[in-house]
Amino acid sequence: MSSGPAAPVGSVAVIGAGLAGLSAAMHLRAAGVHVTVLEAAAAPGGRAARTNRAGFSLDVGPTVITLPDVLADCFAALGEELSDHLRLLPVDPAYVARMHDGSTLALTTDVEVMAERVRAFSGPRDADGYLRLVAHLRAIYRAELPHFIDRNLDSPLSLVNRPLLDIVRLRGFSRLAKVMASFFEDERLRRAFGFQAMYAGVAPSSALGLFAVITAMDLIEGVVYPVGGINAVPTAMATALESHGVEIRYGTTVSSVREDTRDVLVTDADGRSDRYDSVVLTCEPEAAATLLGDHTSRTLRRRRQMSPSCVVLAAGVDHRLPVEAHHTIHLGRAWDEVFVDLAEGRPMRDPSFLVSVPTRTDPSIAPAGGDVLYALFPTPHLRHQHPLDWRRLRAPYREHMLHHLAAAGMGDLSGSFEVEELITPDDWRRRGFADGTPLSAAHTFMQTGPFRTPNRLSSRLVLAGSGTTPGIGVPMVLISGRLAAERLVGRDPSYRSRAWR
C-alpha cells in the first residue's frame, strides 16, 4: 500500500477540532486543500477542553506538553511562527516524584543537576546509572521518533530496516521494568523514571522498553506549559487556521459519513449534507464506525484492549496550596498490585496519582492569590464483567481523593473549592470515549505501530487521533494529524520535523 495520495484532493472535511483535527487541517491547508472543520462543541479543544468560571481557567484534559517543535511544525506549515501565537513556559522540575516513604526527587532536564540529585538520593552507583540512562534515552529517542512514530507504517514489513536493529540493540522489545532495573538499584528510582508507561495504558512490568521514549520526551527534551493553559494550544491553532481561510463550524454534530465512488457525503444532526473529496475523522474508532454505518471499515470493528480510565478533579481555590511543584506524581507503596487492581476492574487499593498545580507556572489562570488544582487518579475502564457503578461511587470516590490529597500534604480541601469539575469514567463515556476511558487503546505490542488501528480506512477516509497511529499524548496526536493529511495529499518532500534535527 502506497503512503501517497490515492486521488486528487480539492476539499476535505475534518471532523473534530481537537489537536489531531487541527493539526490535520493545518497540514492540508498548507497543501492548498480547501478545508472545513466540523466541531460539535462551541470551541476548539477536544480532549484538551477548558472550563472558565469565576476567574479560574480549568483544563480538564492533558496537563503535559512535550516536544514543542512538533507543535511548531503545525504553524510552520502555514508559514507562521509558533511564538507569534503562543508563549510556552518551561516546567522545571518536570515532575516531583513523591515516594511512599515520604522521600521526594525533583526530576529536571539538567543532566548534571539531576545526577547530583540522584547521588544524594541513593548514592554514586545510581548516579552513574542515571548518566547511562540518559545516553540510552537519547539513543532510543533518535532511533524511534523519526523512523517509527513520525511516519506512516503500512505493514510490519515497514519496520524491517536499520533503525529496527537499533531498537532491538537498545532493548526496545524487552520489558521496561527490566530495562530500568539495569540502570538503578533503588526501586524508587525505577518507578520515578518508568512510571510514564502508565500514559501508554500499560504497566511498566509489561510495557515494552521502547516506551522509554516517553521518559525521554519528559526528562531529556523537557516539559512546557502554554500561558493561558493547555487549551490555549487548540485555540491558537484554530485562530491561525481561520486566518488562512479555513472554516470551522462549531456546534455541528456529524450524524453520518457515506462514501461513494466519487466523493464523501457528510450529514450533520440538523440535516445539512455536504460533499467532500475526502474526510478526516478524529474520533475513536468505535465512534467512527457508528458514523460510517454499513460502510464501516473492518478494521474499526476489531475489539481493542483499552487503557485504564481515570477520575479527574479540577478545581479552583481562593488560597495558595501547600505545593511548590507544577507536577507531583505520588507513588504508593504498592506498584505491580496497582496495575492488577486496574486490570481486574477494582479501584486502586494503594493509589498512585498525579497532582498538578499549573498556577505555579502560570498564575494568570486563577484570580490573584488563588490556585488551580488538577488531580488524576487512574481507575478501571468500563469494559469489565461487573463495571464499577460510578453513579453510586461518584461522591464517595471524591471523598477518597480528598483524603489522599490531604494525606499527601494538601491539607483539608473539603468545602474549599470555588469552582470544581469532577469527571468519572461514566462522564468520559458520555463524552464519546469508548469504554469510558480518554486514554484510548493500550499500547500493547499488538496495538502499537503498524498493529494499531490504521489511519487509512479507504482512499477517501482517514483517521487521526489517539486511537490510531502513533498513539496517545499531545505530540503523538499532533503527529497523527499530519500523518492523516499525508495519506490524502502525500508527504511534503521538504518536511523534516524540527524535533529530530
Structure description:
The structure is a single chain. With 501 residues, this protein is an alpha/beta fold. It contains 14 helices and 20 strands. The chain has 3 domains: 11-53 and 228-304 and 441-500, FAD/NAD(P)-binding domain (3-Layer(bba) Sandwich); 110-220, no CATH class; 307-435, no CATH class. The two termini are 28 Å apart.
Provide key terms for this protein.
20 strands, alpha/beta, carotenoid biosynthesis, FAD/NAD-bd_sf, 5-stranded parallel beta sheet, 19% strand, 501 residues, FAD/NAD(P)-binding domain
Total domains = 3
Principal-axis shape: globular
Number of helices: 14
The gyration radius over C-alpha positions equals 22 Å
Quote the beta fraction: 15-25%
Structural class: alpha/beta
CATH-level-2 architecture of the largest domain:
3-Layer(bba) Sandwich
Uncertain spans: none
Strand segment count: 20
CATH class of the largest domain: Alpha Beta
Task: Going across the biggest sheet, name each strand in turn.
Answer: 8-7-16-17-18-15-19
User: At the fourth CATH level, what is the homologous superfamily of the largest domain?
Assistant: FAD/NAD(P)-binding domain
Mean pLDDT: 92
Q: Could you say what the CATH topology of the largest domain is called?
A: FAD/NAD(P)-binding domain
What is this entry, summarized?
With 501 residues, the chain is of the alpha/beta class.
Layout: helices, strands, pairs:
Blueprint: E1 11-15, H1 19-30, E2 34-38, E3 50-53, E4 56-59, E5 65-66, H2 68-77, E6 88-91, E7 95-98, E8 104-107, H3 111-122, H4 124-149, H5 162-169, H6 176-181, H7 187-192, H8 212-221, E9 223-226, H9 232-243, E10 247-249, E11 254-259, E12 264-268, E13 273-276, E14 278-281, H10 285-292, E15 309-317, E16 327-330, H11 336-343, E17 353-356, E18 371-379, H12 390-410, E19 417-423, H13 425-430, E20 461-463, H14 474-489
Parallel strand pairs: 1-2, 1-14, 2-10, 7-16, 14-20
Antiparallel strand pairs: 3-4, 5-9, 6-9, 7-8, 11-12, 12-13, 15-18, 15-19, 16-17, 17-18
Helix pairs in contact: 1-2, 1-9, 1-14, 2-14, 3-4, 4-5, 4-8
